[in-house]
Each structure stands twice: as C-alpha cells, then as structure tokens.
C-alpha cells in the first residue's frame, strides 16, 4: 500500500484507472441504446470497441467480469475497490452505481441521461433496469435485488431516495461517495457532520500511546472513547498513524449539544473510512445518538454518559483518561529549565497536552520564569460550564484577607495542597485507591466573616479562574437532572482548570434523612451522588456555608480542610476598618482604634458601614465624621435586631 496520505495527487492518480474502466463500461451500456451519441462514444472508446455493436456488447460483458475481479484484488489500495469490497457490492450493484456516478463526472453523459430521463440528470431505477436488461430480466428477481442492494443503506446513494417507490428512486450519489472516489473528504455529510483530518503528534505522550495500542483490537465493534475530546483525538491519530485518522464533528458541536433527532452519519462515516483507508470516528457532545440500522458503528468521541438508543445499541467503552501530570511536568521542565517542584506545580495547574509547554514558553519573553508561565496557563484556561456557573478571575491580594490565625493556617494548607499535589500524590506515590487527586475545602462561619473573600483570595493566589455555582440553575425539580448538572460542573473543574465554588453549600450537601416518602428518597440520592463524585473528583473545590450542622457528616471525611471563620476580634476588626475606610477623607478626630473596640461587627458589616458613611460624606461634600460612622454602624446593628452601643458620654 502507498504511504501517501489519501487525497494526495499520487493517491488520486492510482485510483483513476479502475474508475475510468468502471465508468467506461457504464457509458458503453448507454451507447448500446444510443449508438449515435458522440459523448458516450468518447467515454467508452478508451476501454471498449465502439464501432461494432456485437463487439461492444461482448467487450462490456468481458470487461465487467474482469473489473469485478480486479476490484477484489485491489481492495487494499484503491478507493473504488475498498468501497466495493467493504460495502459488499455485487456486479449488479456496481452497474447501478456507475449509472449514478457517470452524469456527475461528465457533462456529455449528464446531457444524455437528461435526454433519457425527461430532463432530469439522474436516472430512475426503473429506467436504469431497462437500460441494463432490456426485456430479458425477470421483474420479480430484479426488484428483489434492488431491495437487497446496500447502495442506500451504505451511504453510497442519497438516503432520502430509499423512501420512494422502488422503481421511482433516483440514482443520486452522495457527495461523500463522489469525494471518496477521488480520495478526498466531502465538505460535510448529508446529515451536516463535518469531517477533518487529524494531525498525528510528533512526540505522542506515553499515556496516549498506551491507549492507542488498544484501539486496533476494538474497532471491529462499536467503541465509545470517553475522556477529554482533544486527548481522544490524539489517541485516534496515533492509532491510525500509518493510514490517517478522520473525525466527523457534529453539526452544532461548538455548543456541545447535538439535535437528538438528527440522523448520525454512521454509513457515511464508514464510507469515508473505506474510501480513504483511514480510521474514522464521530465526535459529539450529545448524551445519546440513534443506533445504526445495518452497519456496525464507527468509534464515537463523546461525554462519559453517552449511550446509543435503539435495537443495535452496542458500544464498548474505552476510557481515554486525563493527561499524565508527570509527563506534563517533564515537558515543563524541559521547556522552562526550571526545577522539579516548579514543574510539578505547573503540571498540576491544568490538563494540558504535553506539547503545550513548549508553545507557552515560546510565547513568553526571553528568560521568563515559572511564575510567568503560571499566569499564561491561567489565561489559557477555557471558559467552560458557563451555563451553570459564573466564571470570573478574582484579583484579591492575599494580604487583604483578615482572618483568625487558626483560620489562616488552614487556608494556607489548602493552597499548599493544590501546589504540591503532583509531587506528593504522584511522585511520592500517595494517591492510592480509587480516590481522585482532588483538593476540597469547607469554609464555615457566620455571614460576613469572609468565606467568599477567602475563596477569591485563594483563587487569586493560585492564579485559577473561579466558577461560582448558580444554585438556581443546578437544582432541578426533575428527577436526575440535578445530578447531571453537578456532573457537568465537576467535569469543568477537573484537572484544576478552575476553582469550583459552592456558596450556601448546605443547600446541596445537606444531611440525609429517614425515607418517609418519594421526596426523601430522591433528595438522599442527590447527596449520595455528591459523596461518590467528590470521591472521584480530580479538581479543586471550595464550599462555604453558614450552617455547619446542616452539612452531612459523611462529607467531612472527604474534605481536605474544614476552616472555621469566627467573628473577628479587636485586632482583626482594626485591620478591616483600616482597609475599608477612606483614610484621605476622614475627619482628624476619628479614632479607628475606638471603632474596632466599640463595635462587634463582622468584616461584611464593617464594609457596609464604611461604604454608608463614605456615601453620606460624599453627598454632603465633607469628610467622614464620627456621627456619620455612628449612623452607618447603627444601621448594621438595626438589620440584625441588635442594640446599638452609643459612645460614652453621648446624649441618648
């Protein structure tokens, strides 16, 4: 077999001889009915004696038999031969198919067909049978052969014609067939799927090669490649390196959604594989596709929950898996020349391909270090899961976070676990069992004590985007929908592509109850799903709640840290007041120390009071005074129904 990729000039040249002989035979058959047609005579003359009717008929019979045997012996090298053998076409099928293709490749033949068919450039089946057999055929036998023909079910002819009455069907070739005969890809299939060649990685990672080695043994049956689509495509490209690999993208795959009623091009995908000799797969974001009716399905790159529906819903699942962080760390170290600890931190940041570090470093200024590369990786993180969460890039300096010393220790531990998880869990071999390589923390305390601010500060320090979960979109009244939404969210944060943040987490991670009715049972199922998903999670997540007692005890073991946010003491309140008050617009007599001692407020309440006083000062055109601060603080106390502590010596 030639090493030239299908579609190259060499591949097209080697395929043209058999195609010319095949189409010359079709032109000769038409010439028997229209002996004066100069265009048909030209087409047939290269391979058939056209000056004598008897010699022409004998030449067609001999040439047809010789062509059929030649196709069988050339099935490894030429598109027409591969199609004929792969689709199990009989001589009768090949004759009908030649009548379909001939007017599409020659204008004179198209004019002749239009004259025969009453102005239409496609022959109906009834007329084609008349041209082939005249009055000598047995009608019932010929009709049975047409009904059994794979021409429509294999995607060779336009599938819509299969629903027409038998003899009225038009012999209309699919664009996939016409392109395939030239060793090329169609612009898109009849169902709108768009094919493209895959590029084989120059140095595929060992993990990619290991999965690709399993592929040839599995492609005889339906195969579901489950994992990151980009890695699945790499696996496909490596598995088909010698012959090429092709992916057909779903019509609306840019939205990761596919119309469940649109017919997938199983037959056309298989036809593309036969014509090009390449390994072909479908790529879709759909949860389901209809099963193929007659042919075995080609491999499918799809989400984990993907399944076929229908009587032939058979797919073997092959887990592609995430990238190997150790391979990625080696690539970072080679590209940056940094030490192993920095390379491990970069590798734990995101599931990038192993060729990404070189590309990132090439885009950085000369001499850039791992910190600069870290910022570039954060910028490259794709904006996923926006349907269920708000994606933002916090910019909260770590120094702005004012919390109790014990809380700061626990938050620092969470940051340390994210940064060093590749070193500890993988290099030191401590990621054992089925647990995911995750870091999950619970932040609990009263409202306004800084839980959300802490989550933003952690995201800023780690240079990770934050996905703030929108509970109104996640929780659904329909059974099973909440679990699907949660699965999508967790997948978006896998590999630390983002920090997943659940505010008011007790709404989802609440305690299970005794089952007294169906509502209790399904509520418990959601909690059980979350317990399982956290166990296998490969990302970074933070949960915040005001009600620790509302969180199921089974979650506590799955949290790497549980950080309590107590009400701030005097020292913490002093730092918070100093941060929020506009120092350049304060009256000289205002004592921040007295504010911190007098008012037992949380950080959120201090912020609100400072803003209220600042607005009052700006509106009056003056600076912030003690009276303005008292009014603003009194409003915060009033919100909570607490008595306001007046200044010593102040009038009531």
Report on this structure.
This protein has 652 residues and is of the alpha/beta class. It has 5 domains: 9-181, no CATH class; 194-319; 325-380, no CATH class; 389-565, Rossmann fold, CATH 3.40.50; 570-639, Helicase, Ruva Protein, domain 3. 47% of the residues lie in helices and 9% in strands. It has 26 helices and 14 strands. The strands form 3 sheets. Strands 1-3-4-6-2-8 form a 6-stranded mixed β-sheet, with helices on both faces. α12 links the parallel β3 and β4. α14 (340-347) crosses α17 (405-427), α23 (570-580) runs parallel beside α25 and α25 (603-620) packs across α26 (626-639). The longest helix has 25 residues, at 9-33. The radius of gyration is 35 Å and the shape is elongated. It starts with 8 loop residues before the first helix and ends in a 13-residue tail after the last helix. 41% of the residues are buried. Mean pLDDT is 84; it is low at 1-16 and 254-261.
